């Protein structure tokens, strides 16, 4: 059976083999209709890239300066442009995605889309500037409604850091692994009564992945599971309830979210770190480097998102997938003074 080549496809379509090669890499220099024609015939005839030639081309490209390919859009939905900086993960996500895109020859441009009107305007902007690849930054749950009605079928899209309500490929930190890693390291330091405390809203927002990792590792290490999912309506009520729970259950170490909420809880309980209790956070809290934590490697998550998006573009995988892919980036344990090695007797 004759192997289907770019030259053969070009003869069938009346295009040069170079144009066919560009189309199969979904290069924006060619009109969308031309790219679609090439992909349709390639799919129909069962075209497959030659693996040896692909490897040779990849080797050659790796030793060349990367040329500009196209612009990708970074979409963020926040009440105002300054509010996004309040998220400790936002900058690392963006910087990682920017680095990953740049390494592949793409420019990453931010688009602020806080209202439905902005999303409507975005459609025209992307069409006019031929921006087909979009990275969706983490957003407030209330903003998810803006995702519905957007013409995703015309573009390539990947979400970063949080699972959107619509089916979309995703690059995210491995929250299950991160919580399990925290338990494992605390256990190695001699702690046997390890608790985890978080608002139920945080657990729901992270799809209970942190809680699942904690419970799985406790079961694996034959440790008692002590967890609080607090439903308090206010931060003050949460502080009081969590302090009461810690005083009642007396964990040797407590794992908490990375926003620092555990500190006023321990003040309320009149407990000193690490003399009275050890503390580990599920995400690094820059203002308190003395607290052991899981580095969720947000920058690598952003880079992974850019790589995933460019891969979708090269494979012409437009629209929302029937079975979304999830690229998980594992966390790293960062030990500090809040979790000293515990001396056990007996």
What does this structure look like?
The chain contains twelve helices and twelve strands. 41% of the residues lie in helices and 17% in strands.
Average residue pLDDT: 87
Q: Segments where pLDDT lies below 50 for 5+ residues?
A: none
Number of helices: 12
At the fold tier of CATH, the topology name of the largest domain is Rossmann fold
Q: CATH H-level name of the largest domain... which superfamily?
A: Response regulator
Count of the separate structural domains: 3
Q: SSE string, helix = H, strand = E?
A: HHHHEHEHEEEHEHHEHEHEEHEE
Q: Into which percent range does the helicity of residues fall?
A: 40-55%
Biggest sheet layout: 6 strands, parallel
How is the quaternary structure best described?
A: single chain
Going by helix content, strand content and strand pairing, the class is alpha/beta
Shape: elongated
| CATH class descriptor of the largest domain | Alpha Beta
Number of strands: 12
N→C terminal distance: 74 Å
Brief characterization of the structure:
The chain is α/β, with parallel strands linked by helices and 346 residues long.
Question: How are the secondary structure elements laid out?
Answer:
Blueprint: H1 6-13, H2 17-24, H3 32-45, H4 51-62, E1 70-76, H5 90-103, E2 106-112, H6 116-129, E3 133-136, E4 156-160, E5 169-173, H7 175-188, E6 194-199, H8 200-205, H9 209-220, E7 226-230, H10 235-249, E8 253-256, H11 262-268, E9 278-281, E10 292-295, H12 298-314, E11 326-329, E12 332-334
Parallel strand pairs: 1-2, 1-3, 3-4, 4-5, 5-11, 6-7, 6-8, 8-9, 9-10
Antiparallel strand pairs: 10-12
Helix pairs in contact: 1-2, 2-3, 5-12, 7-9, 10-11
